Amino acid sequence: MRDLTERALDTAASLGARYADVRIVRRHEESIAIKTGRVEGVASNETEGFGIRVLVDGAWGFASSHILTGTEADRVAGEAVRIARASATALREPAVLDDRPPAYGRYETPVDEDPFDVPLETKIADLLAADQAASAVKGIAFTESMYAAQREWKTFAATDGSFTEQTITHVGSAVEANAVEGDEHQRRSYPDSGGGWQAAGYEYIRSLDLAARAEPLADEAVELLTAPQCPSGRFTIILDPSQLYLQVHESCGHPTELDRVFGTEASYAGTSFLTTDKLGSGFRYGSELVTIVADATASGGMGTFGWDDEGVAAQAVPLVQDGIFAGYLSSRETAPRIGRSSSGAMRADGWNRIPLIRMTNINLLPRPGMSLDDIVADTDDGLYLASNRSWSIDDRRLNFQFATEVAYEIKGGKKGRLFKNPTYTGITYEFWRSCDAVGDERSYVMLGTPNCGKGEPSQTGHVGHAVPGARFRDVQVGVGKW
Amino acid sequence: MNDDRARDALDLAERALDAAMQGGVTEAEALVIAEDEALTRFANSQIHQNVAEIDVTVNLRVAIGKRVGVASSGRTDAEGLRRLAENATAIARVVEELEDWAGLPGPTPAAPVAAGFAQSTAAASPELRADAVRQVISAADDAGVTAYGSFSSGTETAAVANSLGVRVGGTRTIAQLLTVSMGPDGGSGYAEQAAVDVDAIDATAIGREAAGKARATANAVSLDAGDYPVVLEEYAVVDLLDMLGYLGFSALAVQEERSFVELGKRIGSDLVTIIDDGQDPAGIPMGFDYEGVAKRRVDLLDRGICRGVVYDSQTAARDDVASTGHGLPAPNPWGPFPLNMVMAAGDQSRDDLIGGLDRGLLVTRFHYTNPVHPKLAIITGMTRDGTFLVEGGRIVGPVKNLRFTQSYLDALACTVGVARERRTLRGFLGGVVVPAIRLEAWTFTGTTEH
User: How far apart are the CA of A12 and the nearest CA of chain B, in angstroms?
Assistant: First the structure.
């Protein structure tokens, strides 16, 4: 690898790049998809290539290729420099990078049971057992179950002498039961609607115990078909971790991405209401119970690594501290503009994509004192919402609306009957300010998503979210029409 | 087959197929996708990202009887193809039989789609894209606003070879310029153009359209949520077609009873006709699908009546019909999708549509839409980059963005005007050709601060 990285960097420098970095990435993926007891697809995928990012006269260029030869490294480096020179023809503020010490070393995801060593037959049988347990329930129209594993071998080198090697392993799995009758289509999924995902080995999949959870899950999907429509109005709501992680993702993770704040995602995903004037001003993002960190060192999180894709070491950065807006996800280019150093959040989706500011593990920290059950018991009248069904938020990350798979009525501190088709909506900071209970370690769980979209060309990010459950007061539920 | 890239890709597919058949499988299909893509991104009226890539993927599907395995790889040398065949075959040996496995599709006559390729796009340089971006920025500068956006150009070659004799290959190109202009008083405007031929992209016109709208939306005022008649510009109509294609116009969705489609049922007004046509030169054409089956025109909605859904080979076999050429790369648990949707033009001008609103809203585009109730196609999302109050048939001023929660089926049913002009745009399912439309009612359910 060193021969290729050195040649690419030397060529880029000789052509005029003041800074260059190169990543060689090999990715191996394996997936199993089961539908209603039938193995629909088992696939394996391997991809390998390299990408060179150069800074020429303050302008960026990036080129990539799947051909791993010295000659191709020269060609791609030359292409990157040519692209950077074209960028320079429409440049108003040259890019400047913060100082960081050159990065050296190796990192590997801790794995107890290598998912790629577990026999395929075992993985299929485990997933089939869960899927069949769900599909056997009377009234279930179809089930969908998935397993996936991904391993990346990544070598990073830069003209400042940095050289790191990382091996990152992620696994995920889920079972989903669907009941259909007339115009009604209800589903329940476990561990959440996107699946349970961690940076771990097959031991995580075993810990999910999908087969044991499948039947009650399917029963609930069928029950939802005849459940009453969730009422509309102002309610106290408790969010299960299977929904709260996505609330954190959309309403805290994305708006704290500093590139969005500076407008570089404006034409696609949008900007952010967390403008830089709010940093250090005491802006109240949430109640004093709300502390959110970006922690690239968190155990099991899909945003955990040794160094980001600019060679910045993994770190934990407060985003919201006791309710006050405290920091951003940032890069070597954006952080100096607010007088800070990079938070180490630059991540690329493979060898053929440029690093962008991405979430690492955006975690809502638990509060000692109340378990999630305690919070329910402490709620006289409300709704308990679990597992996401749809999500939407405006282009400054203010107005959101989520739907969940299920709502449980809470009366007198007890969860009761089901409601179907629940939705809730609000304005981000008003919602988080209404948080009056955050669960303790007993409900704190690492979840995440492998489908975080951002950037053009589009990139899919693997990000982690550790959250407990939490309670929010006076939230608008439903839209009043159905 | 019309080009060297396609010949090379088909040669690679045949080598992968040979490697697979040597492993004792009963059927095999090799799909090669070779991409050469570049994208120039700008923000704050300057280029800030500028990227290029070349990539090739070989996707191998093999069957041993009714046991099917799929593997893919970026390696194209003999050893890489041998390993790929081993991986796919190893999977096929351990999975259970698919009882209704219909086998791979056989050859179908495929008409060449010359309109899908432009040499100018294949040869587009970073300097060409930068020049266009400077035109957009210049238009923004002239209007006193700031430009954001991207300009992409790309070539995709696909080739399919299978053990039943399918041998097809072709190359297509697509270029897309989109921009958001933002003004100092909160104004925001959007414009976009997609085309096979990069030379057809009019950067100055796109820049002026977005900049003009950013000026026109300055100092927007709040409007209460509620039901309003609307005119949806083409950028918003794309989302209707995308969502309906994703949720319902697929044979698999019908077979799994999660689609709103019932053949013969009326779901739209007489003014709504939607087809999928991979041969339509007004769109972004493609001649065959990722199983190598020739694309057929499918009437999805004919004057509001459900007439058809799209099929791949497996869903077609279940219904005992022929594939319509809408298969995706295997493995594909999501089913076929319409990738070339076209909505028929109407007879009204844009001014006619707006003039028909007594009190309503003109909506430029939607943002972050997602299904709330898939079977009823109830979608939530936000307006963005240009929402205007219309009274007495005239635009009276900009309003702040609104959240909607709306059945897209109900929207089709209350379509009362369709524009005669159409735009070619890029949706998430592929190229689409759409007009602006006027609807009797649209349900807005929330407001925001900008």
Answer: 15
User: What letter does residue A384 receive in the DSSP assignment?
Assistant: E
Q: What is the mean pLDDT of residues A397-404?
A: 97
For residue B148, is it within any domain? Answer: no
Which of B69, B72, B130 lies closest to A86 in CB terms? B130
CA distance B205 to B420: 20
Q: Please give the share of chain A, as a percent, with pLDDT higher than 70.
A: 100
**Chain A window 418-437: which residues touch B at a Cβ cutoff of 8 Å?**
421, 423, 425, 427
Q: Please list every residue in chain A whose beta carbon sits closer than 8 Å to the beta carbon of residue B54.
A: 64-67
Please indicate whether, in this complex, the C-beta atoms of B51 and A62 are within 8 angstroms of each other.
Answer: yes
Domain interval for residue B47: 4-125+154-174
Please report residues of B whose CB lies closer than 8 A to that of A83.
38, 50-52, 126
Neighbouring C-beta atoms of residue A438, cutoff 10 Å: 27
For residues A30 and A425, give the distance between their C-alpha atoms in angstroms, rounded to a whole number: 37
Q: Is the pLDDT of residue B112 over 80?
A: no
A225 touches chain B (CB under 8 A): no
| Closest residue, chain B, to A125 (C-alpha) | B95
Please tell me the distance from the alpha carbon of residue B79 to that of residue B85, in angstroms, as a whole number: 10
Distance CA B183, CA A396 (A): 15
Whether pLDDT at B111 is above 80:
no
Predicted local distance difference test score (pLDDT) of residue A1: 82
Give the pLDDT band of residue B2 (cuts 50, 70, 90). Answer: low
Stated pTM of the model: 0.96
Q: How many domains does chain B have?
A: 2
Q: Would you place residue A125 in the very low, low, confident or very high pLDDT band (cuts 50, 70, 90)?
A: very high
Bridge partner residues of B423 (DSSP): B434
Predicted local confidence at residue A339, as pLDDT? 96
pLDDT in tens, A263-287: 999 999 999 999 999 999 999 999 9
Residues with Cβ within 8 Å of residue A406, at least 6 apart in sequence? A188, A220, A224, A385, A386, A387, A418, A419, A420, A422
Model pLDDT, residue A41: 85
CA A169 – CA A165 distance, rounded (Å): 14
Position of tokens 């999501």?
Answer: B334
Integer Cα distance of B80 and B20 in angstroms: 12
Omega within 30 of 0 (cis) for the link into A457: yes
Q: Encode A208-242: b = buried (16+ Cβ within 10 Å), e = exposed.
A: bebbebbbebbbbbbbbbebeebeeeebbbbbbbb
Q: Is the pLDDT of residue B1 over 60?
A: no
**What is the distance in angstroms between the Cα of B320 and the nearest Cα belonging to chain A?**
20
Average pLDDT of span A118-133? 96
Task: Say yes or no for a CB contact (<8 Å) between A46 and B74.
Answer: yes
Domain contains B39: yes
pLDDT per residue over B302-344, tens digit each? 999 999 999 999 999 999 999 999 999 999 888 999 999 999 9
The mean pLDDT of chain B is 96
Are B11 and B83 contained in the same domain? yes
Structure tokens at A436: 């009056």
> Which of A25, A27, A83 would best serve as a mutation to test chain B binding (most B beta carbons within 10 A)?
A83
- Of B140, B174, B208, the residue that ends a domain is B174
Residue of A nearest to B37 (CA): A457
Closest CA to A289 of A427, A426, A433: A433
Cα–Cα distance for residue pair B63/A42, rounded to 1 Å? 12
Q: Write down the pLDDT at residue B59.
A: 97
Mutation for B interface: A21, A81, A96, A479, most B CBs within 10 A: A479
Same domain, B170 and B226: no
Q: What are phi and psi of B428, to 5 degrees?
A: -80, -10
Q: Does A57 touch chain B (CB under 8 A)?
A: no
* ipTM attached to this prediction: 0.95
Same domain membership, residue B121 and residue B231: no
Q: Which residue ranges form the domains of chain A, and what is each CATH number?
A: 2-225 (3.30.2290.10), 233-477 (no CATH)
